[in-house]
Amino acid sequence: MTAVVWILNGPNLGRLGKREPDVYGTASYDDLVAACAATAGELGLSVDVRQTDDEATYVGWLHDAADGGVDALVLNPAAWTHTSVAVRDAAAALTAPYVEVHLSNPLAREEFRHVSYTAAGALGVIAGFGLDSYRLALKALAARI
Ligand code: DQA
Asked: Is 135 in the pocket of ligand 1 (CB under 6 A)?
C-alpha cells in the first residue's frame, strides 16, 4: 500500500519567495509544494502538504496524525520550533516517525533559534538546504517506512 506522509509547515512559510529571500531563497510556497509532490512521486509516497499561521490548527493536525492513517511526517514548525511547548507535546504523541526540517540552518543564525522544542522526538533534523531539506527528509523517511 502507498505510504502516506504529511508535510506540515508553520507560520510565515506561506510567504516563501517574498519573505527574507536572502535567508530563505526565492522559491515560493507553491514551488515547495511542487518539489514535495515530485519527490513523493519518485519515491512512491502519497503526500499531503499543508501550511498554517495558526498554532491551534497545527496542533490539531498533529492530533489528527496521531489518531492514525499517517505513516510518517515532515515537520517544519518554523518559529514554533523555538517557542512552542504545545507543538512539542503534540509531536511527542505521534507514533509515526517524523523528520524536522528547516530551509535555513537555525544553528548558524540568532541564538534564540539554537533551541528546538520539537527536535527531541524527531528521527532526525535536516536544515540549511532550502527545498532540498524537504526532498532529503522524504528520502530518509521512504527508506524507513
Ligand atoms: C525556519 C527557521 C526558523 O527559525 C524560522 O522561524 C522560520 C523558518 C526554516 O525553515 O528555516 O520561520 O523553520
From this structure: no
Taking the domain 3-111+125-142, which CATH number applies? 3.40.50.9100
**How many Cα atoms occupy the beta-carbon half-sphere of 60 within 13 Å?**
8
Catalytic residue list contains 114: no
Q: Which residues are 102's β-sheet partners?
A: 127
Give CA–CA dist 104/109, Å, rounded: 9
| pLDDT tens digit sequence for 15-36 | 999 999 999 999 999 999 999 9
Query: pTM value?
Result: 0.97
Q: What are the domain boundaries of the chain?
A: 3-111+125-142
User: Does residue 24 carry a catalytic annotation?
Assistant: yes
How many whole angstroms from 92 Cα to the centroid of ligand 1? 20
* Ligand 1, atom 6, residue with closest C-alpha: 79
